[in-house]
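User: tokens in, sequence out, please.
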């Protein structure tokens, strides 16, 4: 089995660790700020059910798309779940979604470019995508690089972390307008709550003095269509129709 086809399993256990909780707390707060004022009708979170990326968003139709049944600890319990084989073929019609959030999906995917092309396909003109990733240019990235040499990994070893400039280039090739990005989690890569909290003072210092060296980043892209001018909000009058995926009830699969 190709582990990169199931990022939920690869990342899930690590997200329950003190370092994972530290990352999730910052990402949840940042996503709440970024998605609160994005309007429309249809939004999708792809992967990472341990965080509710759309919690603050007010669109009437929201889904969680996964490549496996979410764990009991999933944060986004209020959203319907759509299970797919992988994320390179999304079960939504072209130009049907207003917002897609990809939390740590691309760096654990075997075909990240194809996933981005699918996201571009399903987004409406002026639709938005938000991408979360680990930052290679950080203390966490440096420790992970050292782990590759010694075999002692700090972050999940399956991840191929994509730098923010490279991610911006990928988005621009799809005619996405990209913002400057948001960075966070400046504490060194410690494994315990005690030491992570002890270095909490580095959050404000990092934001001021080395803002691009946070352990994680978020980028927001807006789909631009050349020659097209929108009048008013690009909203739909009816909910999006899903394709061929199999939606399941919002509960996890029980053994037996």
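Assistant: Sequence out:
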């Amino acid at each position: 089995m190709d582990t990169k086809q199931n990022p939920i399993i690869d990342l899930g256990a690590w997200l329950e660790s003190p370092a994972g909780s530290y990352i999730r707390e910052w990402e949840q707060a940042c996503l709440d700020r970024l998605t609160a004022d994005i309007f429309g009708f249809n939004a999708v979170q792809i992967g990472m059910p341990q965080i509710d990326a759309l919690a603050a968003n007010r669109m009437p139709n929201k889904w969680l798309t996964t490549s496996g049944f979410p764990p009991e600890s999933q944060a986004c319990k209020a959203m319907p779940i759509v299970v797919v084989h992988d994320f390179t073929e999304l079960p939504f019609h072209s130009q049907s979604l207003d917002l897609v959030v990809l939390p740590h999906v691309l760096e654990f995917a075997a075909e990240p470019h194809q996933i981005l092309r699918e996201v571009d396909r399903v987004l409406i003109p002026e639709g938005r995508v938000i991408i979360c990733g680990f930052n290679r240019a950080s203390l966490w990235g440096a420790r992970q690089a050292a782990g590759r040499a010694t075999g002692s990994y700090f972050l999940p070893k399956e991840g191929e972390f994509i730098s923010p400039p490279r991610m911006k280039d990928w988005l621009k090739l799809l005619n996405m307008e990209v913002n400057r990005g948001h960075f966070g989690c400046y504490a060194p890569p410690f494994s315990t709550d005690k030491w992570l909290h002890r270095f909490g003072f580095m959050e404000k210092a990092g934001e001021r003095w080395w803002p691009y060296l946070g352990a994680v980043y978020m980028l927001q892209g807006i789909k631009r269509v050349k020659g097209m001018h929108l009048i008013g909000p690009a909203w739909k009058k009816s909910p999006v129709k899903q394709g061929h995926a199999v939606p399941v009830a919002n509960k996890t699969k029980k053994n037996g």
